[in-house]
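Write out the 3D structure for:
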Amino acid sequence: MNSPTVKPLVELRRACKVYDSLAGSVTALDGIDLQINPGEFLVVTGKSGSGKTTLVNILTGLDRATSGEIWVIGEPMHDYGPERAAKVRGKSMGVVFQSFELLPTLTVLQNVMLPMDFARRYPIWEQRKRALSLLEQVEIADHAKKLPTALSGGQQQRLAIARAMANDPALLIADEPTGSLDSATAEIIMDIFDRFIESGRTVFMVTHDRDIARRGSRIVTLSDGKIVGVEDSTHA
């Protein structure tokens, strides 16, 4: 539950997203009100087409809401164009994409260093050291010189998480991070998220898997672009 003394890290106010198509308008998000507090592990679940990925996209500024307000770490993402949204995303958010989005021509180490170079948060001499430390945390430091294509799916997901953590973001956003992984590897990924929470950070995760969802502290269920359920997880 939200406390009046705690300022939300993320707040959506009547957020809507409507897409125009040849068949007419499609409402992907329909008046979403949602708050995420610092230190929370919020999980959004729902069937395919419920609006989960659209929600990720407007939170991260990869897409823009049709109406409503989206505040992320004090930034009005609903007002920002692509360039300014990218700067906020690079400095304040870590994003783990469903399809990894790794750069195939860069080594594992270089993939993690790239966001640091983009955000200019760490000096060049410190970037390599920090990247290696992050790879150690996700237990793939011995693959630092390899290309991402040489890694297994689970290792690529760990690399994507290390890259997302590159600039020490307050908020980690993950879109179906275990969707293509076996159960044992998925458990490893969830343990990494648990450690992230224990370090005082906040996680916003999207998943269709109810068992994985229960690893969060609060579960929000979407259906047809609307919030139809909110529950505290018994795991937390």
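Residues 183-198 form the longest helix (16 residues).
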